[in-house]
Each structure stands twice: as C-alpha cells, then as structure tokens.
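Deviations from the work plan: none for this task. Representative record:
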Amino acid sequence: MIKPRLISLLFSSCVRAGCAGQRWWLVGLAANLFVLGNGVAVGYDELVEKHVFEMDGYTTQGGERIPSLKVGWEAYGTLNEAKDNVILITHYFSGTSHAAGRYSKDDAAPGYWDAIIGPGKPLDTDEYYIIASDTLVNLNAKDPKVITTGPATLNPETGEPWGLDFPVVTIGDFVEVQKALLENQGIGSLHAVMGASMGSLQAYEWASVYPERVERVIPVIGSGAANAYLIGWLDAWAAPIKVDPDWNGGDYYKAEPPTKGLEESLKLITLQANHWQWANDTYGREWAEEGVDPASSLEAQFLFEKVLDDVATDRAKVADANHLLYLVKANQLFVTGEGENAEAGLAAIEAPTLMIYSEDDLVFFPALVRQTIETIAADGTPVEEVVLEGKRGHLDGVLSIEQAGETIREFLDRDV
Amino acid sequence: MIKPRLISLLFSSCVRAGCAGQRWWLVGLAANLFVLGNGVAVGYDELVEKHVFEMDGYTTQGGERIPSLKVGWEAYGTLNEAKDNVILITHYFSGTSHAAGRYSKDDAAPGYWDAIIGPGKPLDTDEYYIIASDTLVNLNAKDPKVITTGPATLNPETGEPWGLDFPVVTIGDFVEVQKALLENQGIGSLHAVMGASMGSLQAYEWASVYPERVERVIPVIGSGAANAYLIGWLDAWAAPIKVDPDWNGGDYYKAEPPTKGLEESLKLITLQANHWQWANDTYGREWAEEGVDPASSLEAQFLFEKVLDDVATDRAKVADANHLLYLVKANQLFVTGEGENAEAGLAAIEAPTLMIYSEDDLVFFPALVRQTIETIAADGTPVEEVVLEGKRGHLDGVLSIEQAGETIREFLDRDV
C-alpha cells in the first residue's frame, strides 16, 4: 500500500535529521499512510505542551520598564546539539504560539499551520526544531493556553491589572522577547524565521535587525511597513471598543468588559481578512433564520451576518479589548528595522527570502508586497515568491499555506 | 480667443437643445471661455434651487403605509415640450440630490458630478433636463438642503419622530418615489438614468422594472445585487452606532444622539470607499501633531487617523444614525428587479447600458461588476464599459467621472 518512493523519502529524511528518535520515523509513516488512505495530509502528531518563558524585567524600545514578563511558547521537533536547526514561527494579529499539533487528542483542530509542520512535512520536525511564542499583548489573553503580558496582566507594583498604564510595545519588542527566549535555550541563530501577517512583520524585523542570526526568512501575507491606509483600518478596528461605554477608558477589569465593542472589532478583522469569493460562494443571500425574511424588520438578518456575529462572539470570549488596542498600536508603528526608513530597514535584510502572498489580500495589498520584494532584492538579496490561490483573501496565508509547501521545503533545504 | 470650432459646437448644441433659453448659450460660452483661459472645465453655472415633492401617502414594497412623504429634488436644464429629454440622476449612499451646480455663489463646492453636468458638458444642460432627488431615509437628514422622509421625520400620526417604527424601505421604494416625482411633472420616459454606487442600484432597478420607460442606463461603480460579503460589510458599517449607548434602540430624538458611533460608522464608509494608493501617497506615516510621536502613547495619532476623525466628525454633523441603519438595510436587500433572482432581474434590462467602474473598487469589486455586465449582455442588450483610472478606489466613480465624459456624451447622443 505504501509506494516504495515514499518509504525511501521517509528514510532519507530520517537520515538527514540524524534520526534523533525512531518515533519520528513511525509518526511520519503513520502520517503518510493517512495521506495515502484518505487524501488528507496530517501534520504534527505528538501532543504539544505549552511552556512559559519568564523575564525578570524588560525595557521596551520606548524606554519603559516592565518589571516582570511572561510569554508562552511551544516547540515541535528536537533541538540538535549544534543548536543550528531552529525555525522560529511568529504569529499573526489574532493568533497564538499554537502553530501545529494538538494539546490533547480531543482538540477539535490542530495549530494553524499544521498542514506544513510535522514529520516529513515542509517544516520537517524530523529535521528542525520549530519554536513559536505568544507575543506580548497577545489578543487571546483569556485563552487558558495563551501566556502573555499586557494590560490585562497584574502589574506587580500595584497588584492591579496594568490597564492603559501598560507601556506601548512594538513589533521590535516582540522580537526582543523572542530573542531572549531563544538565548535562554542557547540558540544564537535561526535556520529560518517564518510568520504570517503580523508574523511577517516580526520576520522582517528579525532579518533586518539581526541579519547575522537569520539565515532564511519567509514572510507570508505581509509588507515591510504599515502605511496610511493600514494605519487607518487598524484605527477603525479599534474604534468599536472605544465606543462601548464598558471600555471605560481601559479600566474595566473589575467590571463588565466591553464585550459588544470587542465583538464588533473582531467582526471587522474577520471580514477584512476574508474575501467576497468565499463569502458569496458559501453564504450567498441565505437568510439567518428559516421563514424570517431579512426584509421583514431592521433586525432580521442574512445568514452571513449571523455567521459573523457567531464568530465574533466566539472569538471575544478569549480576547481582551485593551490587548487588541495595543496590538493595533504595535502594527501601526511598524516599519522594518530601526527608525522610520522602511527602505533602509528592508535593504538591511541579507537572508534569502521566500515571499508568500495572495493576489486577493485586502489587508496587505499585493502591490505593496511586491514593492517590499523589490526593495529587499534591490541590493542582490535573493527573493523567491509563491502566490497562493484561494477564495479566502488574506486568510489564504494561513488556510492555503500547503500550496507553498514544496517551495518552502526546497527553500529550507538549500544551503545559503 | 475663442476658436471658431468651439463656437460652432456651442451653436450647434444650442440648436440641438432647441435653444429654450439664450441664457444657456451665454452660460455655455462663459464656461468654455473658462476652459480656454484656465484649462479647467466648469460645470453647471446657474444657481440651483432645491424643490420639494410631496406625496399624500405611500405604500412600501413591504406593504406598509407612510401617510405623508416628502423628498427634495433639483434639476439642471429645461424640460422640453415633448418631455423626452430627461436624464435622472440617482445618488449614492452618503449622497444627496445635489449632483451639479451651486445653491449660492459662495458655496465652497458644486454638486458631486458637476464635472460632467452643465452647458456643453457630457450631460449637456443645453440639451437635457437633468433631475435628481433625495432618496427616502437619506443619510444627511440634518442637512438643511436635504429633504427626506425616514426615522428622523415626524410621524403625523403620533407627532413624534418615527424612530424604528419607520418601515423598512428598499431601493425599489426609492425608484417608486422617483417615478411618482417624474409623473407629477408629466414625465413618462427617461432618456437615461445614471447613478453611482447605491445610485447604480437604483439605475439597474429602473431599467429592469420599467424597461419601457428607460432608454439608456449608466450604472457607475455598482453591481447587480448585494451579495454576502457586501451584506457583511454593510452590517459592520452599522455596528458602531448600535454599540453607542446613546443610540438607545433608535430612540434618541429627545436626547443626545449616538454621535460617536455614527462618526465611527462614517469612518468605515470613508475608508472602504477609498484606496491605499491615495491614503499612502497623500499621508504616508506623517504624525497628526508635530512633535507628538504616535509611539509616545496609545492616544497619539498618525495624520491619516486624524484626517479620518475630522472627516467623520464633519459628516456626522448633518447625518442621522437611524437613517444610516435604514440605508444599510435597503442596500443589503438589493437584488435587481422583482424577487430574489438577480440574473432574471438583470436580463430584464433592455436599454443600452454604459457601465463605468474602477479596477480598485473595494466596495463593489470589479469582478462582480463584470459578472453584471455579462448577465445584462447575455440576451443581446448592448453594454459598453469605461474603466476609470485613479487612486481613490470606489470614490473614483464620483471624483474621476470626467474620464468617462466623452463616452457618456456619445452614448447619450446615439439613437436607440
């Protein structure tokens, strides 16, 4: 049932990775059996553990002190003795460090890039040590699996949640905390850094500020700086929270949080990260409730409105409104590298770059991604690209990433 | 100074229009002198008057009765004796009947399509009687120049503003009121109907439901039905109003209106109707306030954020929040023609169609406009198109309409 070619590939990848554990081979075999039997690829099959990284204080790029800091992280694969097989995954705006695998066998879904992370997969856990961490001010502060530090965290100096006293943090701060996390494990360089959307901003930043530490960079669905239009949309994402009286100037941790405003913010993000091809083809003009014509009253809905409401309600349960505002600010402030000159910041990237994007992206428009490619490539830095096909717009960078799988595999395998 | 060719054109257009008033010729001359002298075209030069059309009751397509109804209208040019030189202009979501000219010489700006409406212009007021009316539930209910009927209007049966007791109205209702307005002037058929965005929906509806009355149709930046994604965005536009506690379930006419929520709704509309090319090129990453780095606090803004705030504040002064919600509903409910079958509705259009759109439209996506073109053209209805160039996305349908000017002129002049 298993084709000979496939078995030899499994063995050869086992050889390449040094066969740190025979179990990887077996997992790979099981995974590939699954592919053969069902036509569906599976990813990382080990149960994933969430770890905590703590710092005894961190000074932000803005010069403010956070006396104690924690972020969650998880890893797939094994760190080799040389500690040179590390791929860092940086997460998107509403994402977490959960890039692959399941915490328990009962989890409804695996991490977001499970399609490309696992034994024998493009980000091959037989070969690489793949690590991902929750950012500071992570959106999903109430998710028990997310560990982050931000406005919802207790300020040790007051014993109260920070609220808006928490300092402004930047994509650069996210990178600095990741660097400390890696150094804590003795990791000095990265085989690659890869991230989608806000994760791509972190990837640009890593490659620009620490060119000697980053051997390859894979930015997905992102461009090299936040510009006026994105800054404006980020502001609009934040707005419903501020309109909600329960937001109370950010001081709501002892009262009702601004759930309605947060839900509407998350709805905007859901909409903009998607595309009409998916929405129209999937939901058309169907009614939310059988027999209730949307024309019958101002309140009566179309199905797609209800779907957006339900998604927003669900996402809001684990999200914190102030964290969303801080993420908005971090993204608005982003320019690759130090200072405000995006061209110089992108020119400082020397690592071979694999750019992955979608022509239908309504958050980071494809023309701006292509400008970023040109700027990185201008001084001779090699840049390859994969254009994803799909109906999900921006989200295809998460949902359709397997289309880029073989290109990613070759890119990671190639010597630099 | 005036070239002979131009004078002869002016005379010939005077002859074509029957020279109902010699003043038109003089205005045309002045206008064209201005073109020659400054290289800038001017539009309608007569002072514009706002008129009121009243109905003694109107039954909506949903079967509900509005006992008394008023809408404002204005006209440019002169209705000929045969009453067969009429062009109806239908307005966009946040627009009004003020399509051309000025109410007083001191007006800061003329009506929105002044570039193409006027003596000698493509919509030539020497030849055509161009009429535009405010829709029901017009957004700008507080604008002294707007006359509309909607939730902010007094319900004669209670003496109080209608609020959410006002019935749901549709694009079809807007068309029915326009039909009554035209019939009141003895007008039975239209040389053309032309409208942008929500105005294009009215144009489709006119041409589909009254094919015998519409000789030509010019839909600008719009497609033939609201689909899921647009329905979702319209819902998102409405959301900040509903989050604002001052909205109070629509009952705010004796208290503070939901200004903050309304402003955020209008900001979303402003953003989506624009495009990154304009925002980025115009505002880049400039700071709102000199010396106040947006990184310095959560509140500190980039210039584009402040511009959006200022525009929204300004627009909210004359807008009514409930009217916005009713417009959202009317647009969500839109399918060309009677019933839910957009293909049948568009197929019923027999009038030659000139479709004008932008490849950068983020409200009515170009692929959906092209689908609409195909559907109208499928049974042999002639459809021409003009693709506008610009940096304003959807808004180029208003701001860059003069690019289509000569095509519009020829389209209107051609016999059908």
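Chain A has two domains: 51-226+348-413, 231-327.
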